[in-house]
Amino acid sequence: MEKYCFGVDVGGTTIKIGFFTGDGDLLNKWEIPTRKEDNGKNIIPDIAKSIKFKITERGLTEEDIAGIGIGTPGPVEKNGVVHKAVNLGWGEFNLEEKLTAQTGIRSKAGNDATVAALGEAWKGGAKGYTDIVLVTLGTGVGGGIIIGGKILYGSKGAGGEIGHIHLYNDEEEECGCGNKGCFEQYGSATGLVRLAHKVIARTEEDSILRGGKISSRVIFNAAKQEDKVACEIIDEYGRYLAHGFAVISAVIDPQVFVIGGGVSNAGQILLDNIEKYYKGYAFHANRDVEFRLAKLGNDAGIYGAVKLILDEG
Ligand SMILES: [Zn+2]
Questions:
Q1: Quick check: helix, strand or coil at residue 126?
Q2: pTM to 2 decimals?
Q3: Is beta strand 141-147 parallel, antiparallel or unpaired with respect to 150-151?
Q4: pLDDT at residue 86 in the model
Q5: Could you give the C-alpha distances from 17 to 20, 83, 184, in angstroms and in order?
Q6: pLDDT at 177 > cutoff 90
Q7: What is the spatial distance between Cα 313 and Cα 61, in angstroms, rounded to a whole number?
Q8: Are 123 and 174 a contacting pair, CB within 8 Å?
Q9: How many CA atoms lie within 13 A of 22 on its CB side?
Q10: Is 313 a residue whose pLDDT tops 90?
């Protein structure tokens, strides 16, 4: 009899859950709110409840489910232990054991960006590649690294935390991690908006960005209309990203960088501005790396979570 799988992607505001066939075909997906109050103690029970409801609704039992894969923010060790997912309020515990105890189903956990990278490598923008770095440009900068087709967990589950690569010494503001000068402070959507305000303040040039609400989407749209100030902003932003990617390349030597997250909705213009500077910063052996846009969007996490289960056999 055919088995099914669940893929779960825990985000700061919603939890996405996908119900898949054992071959990895998505049958349906839904979302539940992430209840972060009381140190996030309702999050796992909410997921378990939603999964059990789906099993009953389909007329199935736990026996019909091959496993639950789950991606979550913060470091996740290979054995399923999560360390301080700060924005969920979690401390340190074994996520796989807890989810299995509450559902009666085998579970496998990974960091959200890393799991999304696995999804993109399996069915998305990096399909067919074995050595990939997924970079998500959103509120922060997330990273997931796949080497030889396998997730890089690292010794503390923090492999691929590329947002906190130290890039600049002259930074005065603090990063969310407490350090100053992290890649995330320049490469995130938040960093892009911060850069935009700086560029607008230092130039007299007229711009459609002046006076309005600024977001990464607004900036890129203005640049596509050839607004000079917006073009200057995304040019400088591309230079920051290229710097970070060149550092990562020297360590990982990937075949491809897959760019996801909200900022990647800008499309080719984003890749063009990265490629403009990347070769100038990269070690010669790493200069021919490819840059691609993520394809699975918000579904990368649930696909990658299911791949975690299928890879375990
Ligand atoms: Zn940081």
A1: coil
A2: 0.85
A3: antiparallel
A4: 67
A5: 10, 22, 27
A6: no
A7: 20
A8: no
A9: 10
A10: no
Instruction: For the chain, give the mean pLDDT.
Output: 94
CA of 178 to the centre of ligand 1 (A): 6
Ligand 1 centroid from CA 140, angstroms: 9
Spacing, Cα 173 to ligand 1 middle (Å): 11
- For residue 234, report the distance from its CA to the centre of ligand 1, in Å: 22
Centroid of ligand 1 to alpha carbon of 186 (angstroms): 10
Range name among 85-89, 143-147, 203-207, 307-311 with the lowest pLDDT average: 85-89
CA of 115 to the centre of ligand 1 (A): 21
Angle at 132 between CA 18 and CA 282, to 5 degrees: 145
Q: How far is the CA of 172 from the centre of ligand 1 (A)?
A: 13
The pLDDT value given to residue 87:
73
